[in-house]
Amino acid sequence: MKTAVFALFYLAGAIGAYILRIPSLKLNARAQKPEERMSQKQRMQKEGTLLSVLMIFWFLAAQVLPILYLTTNWFARFDFRLPDVFYYAGLVIFGAALWLLRRAHNDLARSWSAVVQIKRDQQLITEGIYAHMRHPIYSAHLLWGAAQVLLIHNWFCGFLGFALIVTIMVLRIPREEKLLLNQYGEAYRSYMQSTGALIPRCR
């Protein structure tokens, strides 16, 4: 019973993450230039086949599997038990993920994109949360994955989403850093030296 309750908390947080993203989606839709609009096929070509497939699987692992976990007994054999304190730690971590996600989207404004690209007239954002870390949206998703592990005590439904998002970040961040270095040159190199990628750098 307790496991089901915290799995529901997880799903509520996951839905909340998408709701928090709605203002950024609307802002980008209004500000987007015609040449920046891409079809789903173009998005997949931009990301590459491997990353596109991994992100689809991550969506299924982070959204669909928890629903199946709650509504079926298909994955009961993979259940494990941890002390209740881990549930509460998961709630705190998911709360931090949602706060960080919202803060990063607010600071990035129309410079945010769902795919790795540089928009026309895009400025390098180094203020707000970006003064401390270069990829706070990715950090938020890693916290989200950790919260899934702590709130859904199941080797398959809890860990798969975290494993996939870690893999996506390992592949995606270097591509994004290379693109930004090509675009902004020494300005971005200097920014890299003063900030951490996923956590603030100790100074």
Task: Describe, in plain words, how this protein is organized in 3D.
It is a single chain. The protein has seven helices and no strands. It is mainly α and 203 residues long. It has one domain (2-194): Four Helix Bundle (Hemerythrin (Met), subunit A). The chain is elongated, with a radius of gyration of 18 Å.
How many helices?
7
Shape descriptor: elongated
**Architecture per CATH nomenclature, i.e. the level-2 architecture:** Up-down Bundle
Q: What is the count of β-strands?
A: 0
Quote the CATH topology. Four Helix Bundle (Hemerythrin (Met), subunit A)
Low-pLDDT sequence parts: none
Return the structural class: mainly alpha
Total count of domains: 1
- Could you spell the SSE succession in H and E letters? HHHHHHH
Intertermini distance: 46 Å
- What is the CATH first-level class name? Mainly Alpha
For the sheet with most strands, the description reads:
none
Approximately how much helix is present in the residues? 55-70%
Mean pLDDT: 83
How much strand content do the residues show? under 5%
Please give the radius of gyration in angstroms: 18 Å
GO molecular function, one term: protein C-terminal S-isoprenylcysteine carboxyl O-methyltransferase activity
Protein name: Protein-S-isoprenylcysteine O-methyltransferase Ste14
Organism: Pelolinea submarina
Membrane topology: Multi-pass membrane protein
